[in-house]
Amino acid sequence: MSSPFSVTRIADGTYRVETDRQSETVYVAGPPANRWAFWNGHVFRDTRAAEAAAAHAARPRTAVVQSLTAPMPATVIKVLVAPGATVKKGDTVIILEAMKMELPIRAPADATVMAVHCREGELVQPDAPLIELT
Amino acid sequence: MSSPFSVTRIADGTYRVETDRQSETVYVAGPPANRWAFWNGHVFRDTRAAEAAAAHAARPRTAVVQSLTAPMPATVIKVLVAPGATVKKGDTVIILEAMKMELPIRAPADATVMAVHCREGELVQPDAPLIELT
Amino acid sequence: MIRRLLVANRGEIALRIIRACRELGIETVAVYSEADRRAPHVAAADRAVGIGPAAAAESYLSIPRILDAARASGADALHPGYGFLAENPAFAAACEQAGVIFVGPPSQVLAQMGSKIGARRLMQTAGVPVVPGETPEDQSDDELRRAVDRVGLPAVVKASAGGGGKGMRLVRRAEEIADAIQAARREAVAAFGDGTLYVERLVERPRHVEVQVFADGHGQVVHLFERECSVQRRHQKIIEESPSPALTPALREQMTGAAVQAARAAGYRNAGTIEFLIEGTGNDARFYFLEMNTRLQVEHPVTEQVTGVDLVRAQLVVASGEPLPWPQSALTQRGHAIEARIYAEDPSHGFMPQAGRLLLYREPRLPGVRIDSGVVEGGDVSIYYDPMIAKVIATGETRESATARLIAALRDYPILGIRTNVPLLLRILEHSRFQAGDIDTGFLDGEGAALAEALDIETPPWVRAALAADDEPSHQPPATSHQSLDAWDPWRQLRDWRG
Amino acid sequence: MIRRLLVANRGEIALRIIRACRELGIETVAVYSEADRRAPHVAAADRAVGIGPAAAAESYLSIPRILDAARASGADALHPGYGFLAENPAFAAACEQAGVIFVGPPSQVLAQMGSKIGARRLMQTAGVPVVPGETPEDQSDDELRRAVDRVGLPAVVKASAGGGGKGMRLVRRAEEIADAIQAARREAVAAFGDGTLYVERLVERPRHVEVQVFADGHGQVVHLFERECSVQRRHQKIIEESPSPALTPALREQMTGAAVQAARAAGYRNAGTIEFLIEGTGNDARFYFLEMNTRLQVEHPVTEQVTGVDLVRAQLVVASGEPLPWPQSALTQRGHAIEARIYAEDPSHGFMPQAGRLLLYREPRLPGVRIDSGVVEGGDVSIYYDPMIAKVIATGETRESATARLIAALRDYPILGIRTNVPLLLRILEHSRFQAGDIDTGFLDGEGAALAEALDIETPPWVRAALAADDEPSHQPPATSHQSLDAWDPWRQLRDWRG
């Protein structure tokens, strides 16, 4: 890849990116699957890993199974569906609680519940699959 | 070794040292040969490595050769003696410059110059042997 | 003087209190839940006592557990911070009974000011303006109409039992009164089974301005000027400043005078805040008592910066029984200070609270910028407690320079691993209405959505270049005190990308 | 307004200037020697230009190289900081000729105030008190005796050509005059081949107190009160504070008035400092002009803290041709601020300068504590430049609370890898004479050795325990953004040593 930028690592996670006319400080952190950057008050998520995964997933498959995951560490307050149930788009399937707020997890489309991977009262981690729909 | 202290590492180089009645924060940094600690405005050098080296050096030897070393990164301004020369205790043998100040390196005892390991104008690092006396 | 103080809180405010104690030579005892075992406030205190599981109800909100910790550690005083039990009269009373100094007002003052009705009544007898309103004994249409006449137009007729906007009707013109009463009563009966109506003057485009007061046990009461807190999202303050751009000197004098009167009437002691709503501008402005906060406020640094005093230190001095360190005549308001609260939340996705590890967290170091925070790089933002992780307080000679400093600080404050409201804060501070000082409490609820939508920008090429450089597997781990330092060069030129 | 400014300096002052520019929207250009390629000021500026090898004479002191950098980068202004070329009239003149705004006074003012004799003469004509002294044309014994009478006792008779104490005699009583003249003349001839004698009043136990002044190009001159700088080691300031504990309100008024007069007489522009010596205390105190510093001082933050203004910002505003941002009537002195300078030197070993890598460097975060520094953990303290690595400025309501804050900050400021004067600073701040405000410029040269000797204490057992724990090979490297974070727990309980 050719780029007009000269990049210097000036401290842990800190990069100076320069051209002849410009110099910017960019902060980068996180593993490839969860990469973040900061510049001048803006935050960016690096989506290349996700894009690669999406490209991989784009190959034809016999059935599309979709996992719903927790967006952050949270406690499972309520599991509203059981495997085999059919749900409509927008139906709340699980309620999480995090930071004193309830977070409903909704079905992104009409679907059938394939599996439930969490229990009420359980503390779940980000990106942990909670439920699978097909 | 038994100790009445509970030690918890609370951050990189930072330790909380506790007894039932007391809790202190101590900072530690550096490789074993150059170990430093900080507590409550006081700085400590860990002398155990140096002591071990001294104990090792205490074994009988046929000739005692002493290296004089630079106390800090410095520039060699002047080398005043050549191998074979005899020097008296207190004689200046090398002049270093560091931080805009001259630092004379003096003979710790009457001695003969065995070897000179630096040249004028050279930048020397701490603990680098500059000259050997016997 | 207090000798050993238990800090019944966590996060940035616990650190703030511990630091004030250190300067006064007071020993500190932290308390922590299981989730906070490794939190910065635990490391900062002289000693620390575990008080239970992560859930606040079983730890930071448990009166018996906190009192047990105070007894076990031999603390002779307790600072509640803000939130949690800070305004709980039963907690203050329990401290008083246990012989532990509660750093705050007496429990009966907490009880009285905690009741909205009690506080309103007290203010009225003290001559402090309250929003005109009444629940007529006689609920006939005629009497309700007369009540509307008394409170003045525009007015709101609403269910006395209600809340949440149900059974509420706005009356702008006299002709609308009859219909409004009928409609409100119908909805009130339907929603609450009780048709009793309350009539209140509508405060239009209100600004939220509060006055810091301080009283000692020797009859001295002072004020420390005002804080403007109109930038709110759903009643949650986000940006606070002092002086308020909305106050004329005459209005300031009236409001601070009313606040001192209010504190005197309440028999107040220690630091407190009288919150007011302001309607109108300039010489037409009117102010109304909203409520009293019987504790140190989150936004107290704004006052510290413009007055040059240490409010937490003064709290400890006054709680020890000593007189206030300053007479009113010694207190001045100089320059301008603005505080922005950093929340772990995602403004682009419905302000969803964020939790996780701070992969990178570097506080800016700028002259005139103070950061009160409770987190460190590598630490976790937990799901259990308030999502506010830091406060940035900028001080300058003028409102413009303080704002410029705050903007510079936020642009230089990388927080990675969780989303925060920093990008939104910047959009607010750069907004023409904010810069003109033309903000009422409805500003953010009105404009916030548009601001939040505009937050995501295209990733600039220099950011892509830095991400690509960070991908390179070549670079070595950063220095630590345990590795060979000679091998490590934090400034190493990675490569020239021009090639 | 200035659009792009070249910072002709390094270290903390370069960072300070860059930050002020950022707030004003001024682009910054850093310069760096080869030794400073990776220094923090280079990273902080918008762009950076290399100007030569490590030796200052070939980089930071090279007028042509710095002007080349200014031209190449298109800078329309240049801030010299302090030290290096800041008070060099030829440098200011070169900037003026190159059409680059020099942020400081005009070159001819630098030239005049840089000459001790010229400055002294100017002050005398402006009516500012100078230490009485003269070199009589007629060098006869009688005329010299009359000169001693005129300057007053105690007096010093010294070689006019001399320095370093040679040919110097102290005269306390009139009877000693004849012998002193003979002895001084003999030594003067022997040492310098010139027997001309200078007679000067001896200032006993002098305090060093300076007044900050500021002048714009529109005829406005203000003062920003005083700084007390009597804690010095060999004329090197170590601790500075404002207000001075030695000044009565009357003396402050006289001195600040004299300083404004002096600045007016000098045709001064931008920020400057008039240094005075004070003799005696209370109402008997007298003050004498010592010299004028025609630049921003190292200790300027002390003034910023007590007056609430930003001196660097004002420098940039005034250099742009705008009027001073404050009339005298708007300037107030509130609270107390103390600054301690942290030097990389070893007080226990003859104050030998230290250089090396900062193995651990953590700045304390305390309310009311400002740190202006130019180093980072993992960075190198170089042998090439000034050994001052940071300034800690504590502000409080009173001298006692500011001192307590400064002590708390220094006790919480670990710097490992090189020795610093932090332990000595603590001993000075805790000294009864310092705490009583009873310090003259001889204090540290008198008591310093004893203080420095008492610095080394026995390693306490808890420090040994931490060192032993750090030996354990078991612990993992700290988290970085590049390693798996899940595996790392920075707060891991290492072990219980009670076992």
Layout of helices and strands:
The complex is a heterotetramer, with two copies of chain A (134 residues) and two copies of chain C (499 residues).
Chain A: E1 6-11, E2 14-18, E3 23-29, E4 36-39, E5 42-45, H1 48-57, E6 66-69, E7 74-79, E8 86-87, E9 92-98, E10 101-106, E11 111-116, E12 123-124, E13 129-133
Antiparallel strand pairs in A: 1-2, 2-3, 3-4, 4-5, 6-13, 7-9, 7-12, 8-11, 9-10, 11-13
Chain C: E1 4-7, H1 11-24, E2 27-33, H2 40-44, E3 47-52, H3 63-73, E4 77-79, H4 89-98, E5 101-102, H5 107-114, H6 116-125, E6 133-134, H7 141-151, E7 155-159, E8 168-171, H8 177-192, E9 197-201, E10 207-215, E11 221-233, E12 236-242, H9 249-265, E13 270-279, E14 286-293, H10 300-307, H11 311-319, E15 336-343, E16 345-346, E17 352-353, E18 356-357, E19 360-361, E20 369-373, E21 380-381, E22 388-396, H12 399-411, E23 415-416, H13 422-430, H14 432-435, H15 443-453, H16 461-471, E24 493-495
Parallel strand pairs in C: 1-2, 1-4, 2-3, 4-5
Antiparallel strand pairs in C: 6-9, 7-8, 7-9, 10-11, 10-13, 11-12, 12-15, 13-14, 15-22, 16-17, 18-21, 19-23, 20-22
Helix pairs in contact in C: 4-5, 7-8, 12-13
Explain this structure to me?
The complex is a heterotetramer, with two copies of chain A (134 residues) and two copies of chain C (499 residues). By secondary structure, chain A is mainly β. Chain A folds into two domains: 1-59, no CATH class; 61-134, OB fold (Dihydrolipoamide Acetyltransferase, E2P). Helix content of chain A is 7%, strand content 48%. A five-stranded antiparallel β-sheet of chain A has the order 1-2-3-4-5, with no helix packed on it. In chain A, a hairpin with a 2-residue loop joins β1 and β2 (14-18). The model of chain A is unreliable at 59-63 (pLDDT under 50). Chain C is an alpha+beta fold. Chain C folds into five domains: 4-103, Rossmann fold, CATH 3.40.50; 115-131 and 206-300, ATP-grasp fold, B domain (D-amino Acid Aminotransferase, Chain A, domain 1, 2-Layer Sandwich), CATH 3.30.470; 132-201, 2-Layer Sandwich (Dna Ligase, domain 1); 335-455, 2-Layer Sandwich (D-amino Acid Aminotransferase, Chain A, domain 1); 461-493, no CATH class. Helix content of chain C is 33%, strand content 24%. Chain C has an eight-stranded antiparallel β-sheet with strand order 14-13-10-11-12-15-22-20, sandwiched between helices. A five-stranded parallel β-sheet of chain C has the order 3-2-1-4-5. In chain C, α4 (89-98) runs antiparallel to α5 (107-114), α7 crosses α8 (177-192) and α12 (399-411) runs antiparallel to α13. The longest helix of chain C has 17 residues, at 249-265. Chain C is globular. The N and C termini of chain C lie far apart (68 Å). Mean pLDDT of chain C is 90; it is low at 473-499. Chains in contact: A-C, A-D, B-C, B-D, C-D. At the C-D interface, α1, β20 and α12 of C face α1, β20 and α12 of D.
